[in-house]
Design a protein that fits this description.
The complex is a heterodimer of chains A (368) and B (338). With 368 residues, chain A is an alpha/beta fold. Chain A has one domain (1-360): HypD, alpha/beta domain 2 (Rossmann fold). Chain A has 15 helices and 13 strands. Chain A has helices at 10-23, 37-45, 65-68, 71-80, 104-109, 120-129, 146-159, 173-182, 196-201, 207-211, 224-239, 259-268, 299-302, 318-323, 354-361; strands at residues 30-36, 56-63, 86-90, 114-116, 134-141, 164-170, 190-193, 217-219, 245-247, 269-271, 274-277, 281-284, 288-290. A 5-stranded parallel beta sheet of chain A has the order 2-1-7-8-9. In chain A, strands 4-3-5-6 form a 4-stranded parallel beta sheet, sandwiched between helices. Chain A has a two-stranded antiparallel sheet with strand order 10-13. With 338 residues, chain B is an alpha+beta fold. In chain B, strand 5, helix 3 and strand 6 form a beta-alpha-beta unit. The mean pLDDT of chain B is 94. Classes of the chains: A alpha/beta (368), B alpha+beta (338). At the A-B interface, helix 1, helix 5 and helix 15 of A face helix 7 and strand 14 of B.
Chain lengths: 368, 338
């Protein structure tokens, strides 16, 4: 398969690993954060963590959209679906995420009309087909998915579809990276930078990581060779005492980003003054809000959400895992009361969640 | 693990939840030596002859998809459960639950498909039942078929006979059926020239039994829950490790592509015309060659080996030395595919 097989080529992978072994100074313990949940998934899916030198530690970052969503927001979304007139739509990733009263899937089994969609436009189509229903799209994701939501809102306006609204939970990656860099309990040497997000925002916005915090950051693809090459490039920068933004994922990520998508975001959204993140707490200007012009389609206004805050179950340490302070298996609940079938936290649900990726793909704890 | 409060779609997916439903509810109430192995078919011995008995329900949506339809699936799925139990399929019973309002043309079409499939699989439809439910309370039609067959002499399928070093043999590419049905629903705008692999397996399994029945130790067809789920059940039952080499597993480009885009693991996707067997290592190559010479078995391959560790787990190895554990299917990414 084109664009896949080339990046899983065993010969090249072996060669890259050899170069990494040569570059890594055995007397140094490197801590590299992969920001994206997609990278975390690939690392475990392809067993990359076990192939690199043991002094190169990979720390899982916060780039998993359903994982960073606090439980209060999930419950508010589900509360909207209590109205028998409502069809709540969400991406597949959301369906098994536990709220306080159960996951969307559990509530669906109990008779609420909750449906999975692959695109917010499908949700808008559903509204068109069911004029007597209120169709709500539970929007989640970083800059990757936000442009599609923006486009859908524009279409709703253009087509004059009134029985549609968006429960907006879009968040931004840069404030999260900054929060991690500012966190006192976090020592990092470099970043494997987000791939999908960067297709939209480009590479330029990461300059502060390299310039102000003096950390190398390499925007990376998701195949084994992509991730290994990014690790190699970070180690090379460290060896040469450099801190630069590099784009390893040039086949998809333009340096300047996707102007059309960025314009869409600007047209439809504005910054929230603050937003709550699971594990990271409240972060200023870290999420998107629907602009006044489109407020008619804002589910928060239409259904009068309360802005509730719920704390995670006490024993769960999702926050620590999300910040990279704990490894998934170091959480007290991991594999016991929290497992993919009965997840306590979202990190055990999403394929991009570090806990699920670890639970599904790693069979020896000692491998890490 | 505790049971869920209500039935969820995942209980029907053939993965962990299905297994729990069967073990904690059905097996708990109905325990007996015939049921206990939780195999594809019950083996009943009477007067030195072994009979295999199995039953399966079909709720696939949509009713027809490229390369097949529910009527055909209802025959092949059931005769294959007999075949992987080492039994020659002989007779089928079929029960139809029809929804008022279903077009007569569709019903006739599906009965014809069933008759055609039965002929192709050399079984007769010896009986059955029809029931009709109110409009809106079925989904067009559901079928349950029960199959009856004769276990071939010399066959001894028992996970406890599996030893370290035994080879894992797969009959051909996996995942065609699951992805075909998913795409046929039209919910995802993806196109592929893919059709279901639904077919009777006995023509491939019978020659293997003729060659050396005792060298076949375990067999399953990777339907719901895919190859990952049946291999996990094997690993769980034998207490050994199941090591498979990912690059050796035949998967069509279309299936791989759809899985990449949708974030699915091809190892979790159903096939309706493949089987996987654990065979004696000395006979493995002979079996593979035998299958390769049978039409439809050209892509059969040895994909792995039974190892002493990690106990009870399925692990894939890649050519560059990476490894990962393959878990059973959790949840249900593709409900109602058969």
């Amino acid at each position: 398969m084109q664009y896949v097989d080339e990046f899983r080529d065993s010969r090249l992978i072996k060669k890259t690993i050899e170069t990494i072994q040569q570059l890594a100074d055995p007397t140094v313990h490197y801590r590299i954060m992969e920001v994206c949940g997609g990278h975390t998934f690939s690392i475990y899916r392809f067993g990359l963590h076990a192939l690199i030198p043991s002094n190169v530690e990979l720390i899982h970052g916060p780039g998993c959209p359903v994982c960073v969503l606090p439980m209060g927001r999930i419950d508010e979304g589900l509360r909207i679906a209590e109205d028998p007139k409502v069809i709540l739509t969400a991406f597949g990733d959301m369906m098994r995420v536990p709220g306080q009263t159960g996951s969307p899937l559990v509530l669906k089994a109990k008779g609420r009309d909750i449906r999975m969609v692959y695109s917010p436009l499908d949700s808008l189509k559903l509204a068109k087909e069911h004029p007597k229903k209120e169709v709500v799209f539970f929007a989640i994701g970083f800059e990757t998915t936000a442009p599609a939501t923006a486009l859908t809102l524009l279409k709703a306006q253009e087509w004059g579809i009134k029985n549609f609204s968006v429960f907006c939970n879009h968040v931004l990656i840069l404030p999260a990276i900054r929060a991690i860099l500012d966190s006192p309990d976090m020592r990092l040497d470099g970043f494997i930078g987000p791939g999908h997000v960067s297709t939209v925002i480009g590479c330029r916005p990461y300059a502060f990581v390299a310039q102000n915090y003096k950390k190398p950051i390499v925007i990376s693809g998701f195949e084994p060779l992509d991730i290994l090459e990014s690790i190699l490039r970070i180690l090379r920068q460290l060896k040469e005492k450099k801190s630069e933004v590099e784009n390893q994922y040039g086949r998809v990520v333009p340096w300047e980003g996707n102007r059309t998508a960025l314009k869409l975001l600007e047209r439809v959204f504005e910054l929230r003054s603050y937003f709550e993140w699971r594990g990271l707490g409240f972060i200023a200007q870290s999420a998107l809000k629907i602009k006044k012009e489109f407020s008619y389609w804002d589910a928060e206004l239409r259904f009068g959400t309360q802005g509730i805050t719920l704390t995670d179950p006490k024993a769960a340490q999702c926050g620590e895992v999300l910040k990279g302070v704990l490894k998934p298996y170091q959480c007290k609940l991991f594999g016991r009361s929290c497992n993919p079938e009965h997840p306590v936290g979202a990190l055990m649900v999403s394929s991009e969640g570090a806990c699920a990726a670890y639970f599904h793909h790693v069979y020896q704890k000692t491998e890490l | 693990m505790k049971l869920e409060q209500c039935i969820e779609l995942a209980h029907g997916a053939g993965g962990k939840s299905s297994r729990r439903l069967i073990e904690q509810v059905i097996l708990a109430e109905c325990r007996n030596p015939l049921l206990e192995p939780l195999a594809d078919a019950a083996i009943i011995e009477w007067d030195k002859t072994r009979y295999a008995l199995t039953t399966d329900s079909y709720v696939v949506s949509p009713l027809a998809f490229p390369g097949g339809s529910i009527g055909e699936l209802a025959v092949n799925g059931t005769v294959n459960d007999l075949a992987v139990s080492g039994a020659k399929p002989l007779v089928i019973l079929s029960s139809w639950i029809l929804e008022a309002g279903l077009s007569m043309e569709v019903f006739q079409r599906e009965v014809k498909a069933m008759a055609r499939a039965a002929k192709a699989a050399s079984v007769i439809i010896a009986g059955g039942d029809t029931k009709v439910v109110e409009h809106g309370k079925g989904d067009g039609l559901y079928i349950t078929t029960t199959g009856y067959g004769l276990v071939e002499p010399g066959v001894n399928l028992d996970p406890h006979r599996v030893e370290v070093g035994d080879k894992i043999l797969l009959s051909g590419p996996i995942g065609d059926h699951g992805i075909t049905v998913l795409l046929a629903r039209g919910e995802i705008e993806l196109e592929a020239t893919l059709k279901t692999d639904s077919r009777p397996l006995w023509p491939m399994i019978e020659p293997m039994i003729r060659l050396e029945p005792s060298a076949i130790k375990w067999m399953r067809d990777p339907t719901r829950g895919g190859l990952a789920s049946v291999l996990n059940e094997l690993a769980h039952d034998i207490g050994f490790g199941v090591m498979i080499e990912e690059e050796l597993i035949p998967i069509r480009q279309e299936v791989r592509g759809a899985c990449e885009i949708l974030g699915l693991d091809p190892l979790h996707i159903a096939s309706e015309g493949q089987f996987v067997a654990v065979v004696d290592q000395k006979k493995a190559v002979d079996f593979q060659k035998l299958l390769n010479d049978i039409p439809g078995g050209e892509e059969a391959r040895i994909i792995g080996v039974i190892s002493d560790k990690p106990s009870g787990k399925v692990v894939t190895l890649s050519a560059y030395g990476g490894s990962r554990m393959v878990d059973m299917l959790v949840g249900d990414p593709l409900p109602r595919i058969c």
